[in-house]
Amino acid sequence: MNSINPTITGEASQPEGAAIPVQEEKPAETIIEEGKTVGKPFSGDPKFKLRDVDVFYGDTRAIKKISLDISRNEVIAFIGPSGCGKSTFLRCLNRMNDSIDICRVKGSLQLDDHDIYDPKRDVVELRARVGMVFQKPNPFPKSIYDNVAYGPRIHGLANRKSDLDEIVENSLRKAGLWEEAKDRLDATATGMSGGQQQRLCIARAIAVSPEVILMDEPCSALDPIATAKVEELIAEMSESYTIVIVTHSMQQAARVSHRTAYFHLGHLVEVNETNKVFTSPEHELTESYITGRFG
Amino acid sequence: MTDQRSQAEIVRQSLKRRYRKERRFRAYGILAIAIALGALLTLFTDIIGKGYTGFVKTTITLEVNLDREMMYLDDPTDERQMKMADFVEPLIQALIQEIPGATEEDRDGVRDLINPYASVTLRDAIKANPGWLGTTQTMSFLTHTDVDVYVKHAGDEAYSIKLDEQQRAWVDELLERDVIETSFNDVFFSGGDSRDPSKAGILGAIVGSLLTMFVTLILSFPIGVAAAIYLEEFAPQNRFTDFIEVNINNLAAVPSIIFGLLGLAVFINLFGMPRSVPTVGGLVLTLMTLPTIIISSRAAIKSVPPSIREAAEGIGASRMQVVLHHVLPLAMPGMLTGSIIGMAQALGETAPLLLIGMVAFIVDVPDGFFDSATVLPVQVFLWAGSPELAFIERASAAIMVLLTFLISMNALAIWMRKRLERRW
Amino acid sequence: MQPANLLLLTLVLAVVAYGLGYARSRSLAMPLGGIRHLKSLPFYYGARAALWSGIPALIVLALWAAFQGKVIQLIVIGGLPEGMIPASEGEASLLLSKISNVASGALSPAFAEAPIAEAAERLKALRSQSQFLMSALVIAVAVLAGFLGWLRIRPRLNARAQVESILKWLFFSCAALAILTTVGIIFSVALETFRFFEKVPFSEFFFGSQWSPQTALRADQVAAEGAFGMIPLFTGTLLISAIAMVVAVPVGLLSAIYLSEYANKTVRGVVKPLLEMLAGIPTVVYGFFAALTVAPFISDLAASLGIEASSQSALAAGAVMGIMIIPFVSSLSDDVINAVPQAMRDGSLALGATQSETMKKVIFPAALPGIMGGILLAVSRAIGETMIVVMAAGLAANLTANPLETVTTVTVQIVTLLTGDQEFDSAKTLAAFALGAMLFLATLLLNVIALKIVRKYREQYD
């Protein structure tokens, strides 16, 4: 199955040394084989079992036949140049793409052996189990307390005020925000710093007790100190949650993740233990990317 | 893990209730839209249902014997004789002849079938054709409004039929023989207001509206565009400019009746301008629509990309040249669109015109900017206030004409926006 | 000459001035070796001459046309014999209308008193003189100023800069017209309002609960002065506006929410223009609908339920006004709801909230300030709405909160007091201006607050 991708051929035919995003010695179709991923994309008893996933935006094919397993309680990082489809793929995992009219998903995506895109599947329940943290911190314009309590309230997770208080406190503690926020739970969340806001969003996601947390470049809008705090938090959370993180920063992927998946123009090129990906990548595109030849 | 499982269970249990709420919320939205669209539909069907008969007139065709003696008229060119002559008698006689079984006894009942203005029609006809005197002519006349109402609305409970049994029988008979006929109401489009609904027309109001709109357009478009150019291109960033902008924004939201008070106090009382004339109406509507035109023109100027300006300035054009040669032509479609919408608003406006006296009862079609006139919406207002249902019918018909104007203006604006406006 | 014809003539003169200026600049340039040696293009010399000729003439024309009526009236009144000089402005306007009726031939001079007939003759004479003088003056100014402008053309003259600065001033005065309009409004209502308060005490107007301005015919009748308490008008206006809001806010808001959050593109494409159509229907049409369809329907319905309802109930006027305001509320809410960032929606949906939960608990509270601003604007529009209430609400100034009874509003009273026969300085006429002042202040206040709220809201998400 060697379909010709016009974008790749077009770019590959450019003369070497020109200022173009992709520089390859050989035509791309010989480098990327559709549906084939080097490394270790599969595992036994996975949390997510994803097979032959295609995503279309109208007529554009944004994700091309990706197959991948995500294990329980692992942190997996998605890396790759911009526009490679890593965020699109991430958003399939809790069906956040549903709200885009022209977006269609094909293939088999299973969470604990149940199909995510089954028409009978309830998207509300799915999202309660698969939480998400976004690129830009997006706290609601409410108090800190109400932000964290929002999920438990809509899902009816707390019967009493004291239960809710407990959930809020635990979530804020887990997000490492309790000490900073405990005295101003009634203050509006939009008044916090960017890093605090992002940790609040994490606390908000945790409060629903999801099994999986998806993170879409959670640190790209943060300064280095705030980034360090969030990364610390991810490491702590990895004990109890499955975490999928999309990141632009290879260092971050190296620091927080167990496995790393490299995406390129809608293809999943390589998946392996993070160490392995960054020290001895198997695929030459991965190598070009992590050595900074494009990105 | 067990904790998470039970959480998922709680979520699943709550779903049914939450989806019920979701559906209910969605239903409220649909209901709201249904109410709004239902109101629109009701409004249109109501007006069309009330008014379509306004486009129909009822006429009676008679063989009129223009007998000199009966009319006391020898010489139709003699003004004095024409004034004294009897133009009603020939009509009555013609009717008595036309109606089988009617005799001289029925004069009054017969006369009430024909429009009171029919004698005027007859006089004008004889004046125009003096040779007709002494002959028998076949002529069509408007029927009396009561007959008109009976013919159009016989079964309708809302209308009270003023004809008695005898008259109804006559009308039925004449209808059968096509002596009384209904046809397209050209009178409605060719005359001014009248005390008699059958004679009342909207030509006067349409001409009044056109004159008023003409004044509004030639004043508000150039002034609005000039003000927009100044504010977008030349105004310095200072308090005074801010003050102008605040003024414009507030004027856009001032109730229209306040502009009527302004017109009354300034144009009429202070300047001594005449009441009820299109010029003053146009001035008032200009002040009222200016903010709309300025705001939309500014938006049109803003949408011209800075690269065009830079390109022109780069080859040494002055600021004014850049604006007049490049920005203005490119912004023109947007400005025109905004102005058409502003004009449509002005065309439908009534309240301020009431205060400057454009509510007078005016029979003649106005022939100038300083001639007493009324406008379409005011004509609707005047007729709607009449106790006679025949006038209500005319008011509905006039509304249909007004709405046709407005809808075509808005359609033109939409078409222009789609066709002419560039996307940058 | 008629002002309209004179206007055309002035424009023609300006075009002539343009041609002459253009020609002169070219002929001046020829000996120097072509138009390259002119400071500006010949076009600008021509334009300069045209502006020189046209602008002063137009200003003279406008001023003359604006003031001639008043000046002539004053002269005619002043020329009346001793005994006939009117004591009050009201008498003056009556007298003037009589005179002008005689002058226009509507009233035969034979039926008028001799001084009136004389005055009518004088009026006619003055009118034709004024018209002649105006024509002469305007033409003279146009020719003279145009000639001066033409004479001053020199090759070194920077005509372009001059033309541009004149244009700039012209543009500026057009923009400043907005201020002039506001000043005009304030001036026209304030002046008469002060005169009103000379006749009617402050406290009666603001705290009186009786409104019956129909001044009695005989001076010795009870309540000869009429009563001018605005409280019943105020409450009537509020009652009708409140009914309108009860209709417009939920319907407008919910349809905006449905259209922006649930409806697909086709539905939106059909429903939105239809809603906008509601906004484009003239108010007189709504008034017609309210008075002749809705009001009878409501009173029939109430009668069939055994309740008594007036045939001009506040409910009919209010409900129809609400329908008129629906598109206003929905388009403002639509703007505001769309201004809430998509990130808020995503954040809530990602937590597993349903669309309605997201809407009710996140988007709506976030959009609330903006929506409140929009509602305030809608209220201000309801208060100032005239035709619907003039046609469908009554004239009886009842102090009631029952929507099935008749109430009257500020705008209805303004129209009633100022249409038909008016005397110019009676408390009745002045009262209309006082009501106008209140209306202007109230709507201005609402607008300023609402615009401020909306702007602040926009800035929050920009």
What can you tell me about this protein's structure?
- The complex is a heterotrimer of chains A (295), B (424) and C (462).
- Chain A is globular.
- In chain A, the strands form 2 sheets. In chain A, strands 1-11-10-4-9-8-7 form a 7-stranded mixed sheet, with helices on both faces.
- Chain A is α/β, with parallel strands linked by helices and 295 residues long.
- Chain A is 35% helix and 22% strand.
- Chain A has a domain at 37-138 and 209-290: P-loop containing nucleotide triphosphate hydrolases (Rossmann fold, 3-Layer(aba) Sandwich), CATH 3.40.50.
- Chain B is mainly alpha-helical and 424 residues long.
- Chain B has 2 domains: 53-184, no CATH class; 203-420, MetI-like (MetI-like fold, Orthogonal Bundle), CATH 1.10.3720.10.
- Chain B has helices at residues 2-51, 68-71, 79-84, 89-98, 107-111, 118-128, 145-153, 165-176, 186-190, 203-234, 239-251, 256-270, 278-302, 306-314, 319-348, 351-355, 376-384, 389-420; strands spanning 56-65, 136-142, 180-184.
- A 3-stranded antiparallel sheet of chain B has the order 2-1-3.
- In chain B, helix 1 (2-51) packs across helix 18 (389-420) and helix 10 packs antiparallel against helix 15.
- The two termini of chain B are 55 Å apart.
- Chain C has 462 residues and is mostly helical.
- Chain C has 2 domains: 3-157, no CATH class; 227-461, Orthogonal Bundle (MetI-like fold), CATH 1.10.3720.
- Chain C has a two-stranded antiparallel sheet.
- In chain C, helix 5 (159-199) crosses helix 15 (427-461).
- Mean pLDDT of chain C is 86; it is low at 216-223.
- The interface between B and C is large, with 94 and 97 residues.
Question: What would a concise description of this structure say?
Answer:
The complex is a heterotrimer of chains A (295), B (424) and C (462). Chain A is an alpha/beta fold.
The radius of gyration of chain C is 31 Å
Largest interface: B-C, 94 and 97 residues
CATH architecture of the largest domain in chain B: Orthogonal Bundle
Shape of chain B: extended
For the largest beta-sheet of chain B, the strand count, sense and barrel status come to:
3 strands, antiparallel
How much helix is in the residues of chain C? over 70%
What is the CATH C-level name of the largest domain in chain C? Mainly Alpha
Could you please say which CATH topology of the largest domain in chain B applies here? MetI-like fold
How many domains comprise the coordinates of chain C?
2
